Amino acid sequence: MELAPGAVHLPRYLTPDRQRSLVDECRALVDGPVPAYVPVVRGGGRMHVRMLCLGRHWNGRLYAYEPTRADHDGLPAPPLPPAFRALAGEIAGAAGMALDADLCILNYYDADGRMGLHQDKDESAGSIAAGLPVVSVSLGDRARFLFGGLKRRDPVESVLLESGDAFVFGGPARLRYHGVSCIVPGTAPLELQMTGRFNLTFRQY
Ligand code: SIN
Ligand code: MN
Q1: Hey, whose CA ends up nearest to atom 7 of ligand 1?
Q2: Nearest Cα to 202, choosing from 4, 22, 20, 17?
Q3: Helix (H) or strand (E) run with residue 117 in it
Q4: Is 163's C-beta closer than 6 angstroms to any atom of ligand 1?
Q5: For residue 160, what are the β-bridge partners?
Q6: Residue 93 and residue 91: Cα distance in Å, rounded?
Q7: 3-state SS class at 17
């Protein structure tokens, strides 16, 4: 389902089994030795997600990537698991694009989680110029995902992202504004035994 040139929604891409094992991995990561945390961004606002970056750390105070978490605890970003890299490449391929991911931002949204409209533009100039896609995977509660244009004020489309959905935006859609206006609590598949939502975005720096 192409929302716009380069923007592809793949509903229920992941089988329940794959969702379950990914949720287990996400849980272990966010509560692991390098745990997820609530970033404070430029200007001092706290984000409304718990974040853990894998492969490369995104510093929310600088809007830049770095190897260690200088804005939080100085720990190195955990490596990107090889299976995550493979999954990202598989999904990009299913959307007709190519991606050799080297980083993932894993976010956990509780019932009040959200993310304001923004562009993903902190990856390398070469990656963005090439239109290498961002591959997003959603697990758990449904989210109201907003997908806009290349300017903040452009109209936005609202898409419900459900557990197992993938969403890929690359090529001419790579710099489109997007965000999450709300989570729909209690809508995660029962078999995942979870509250809230994980979202993984895979990128190639
Ligand atoms: C993001 O834009 O980084 C996250 C999108 C989402 O949670 O679906
Ligand atoms: Mn984003």
Answers
A1: 199
A2: 22
A3: strand 115-118
A4: no
A5: 144
A6: 5
A7: helix
* Global confidence as pTM: 0.98
Determine whether the shortest distance from the Cβ of 127 to ligand 1 is under 6 A.
Answer: no
CA 186 to chain centre: 20
What is the DSSP code string of 21-74? HHHHHHHHHHTSSS--B--B-TTSPBPBSEEEEESSEEETTTTEEESB-TTTT-
pLDDT in tens, the chain (205 residues): 999 999 999 999 999 999 999 999 999 999 999 999 999 999 999 999 999 999 999 999 999 999 999 999 999 999 999 999 999 999 999 999 999 999 999 999 999 999 999 999 999 999 999 999 999 999 999 999 999 999 999 999 999 999 999 999 999 999 999 999 999 999 999 999 999 999 999 999 9
Of 54, 49, 66, nearest to 109 by C-alpha is 49
HSE-CB for 113 with a 13 A CA cutoff: 26
Please indicate whether residue 204, judged by its CB atom, sits closer than 6 Å to ligand 1: no
Q: How far is CA 185 from CA 24, 46, 102, 195, 197, in A?
A: 19, 21, 31, 7, 9
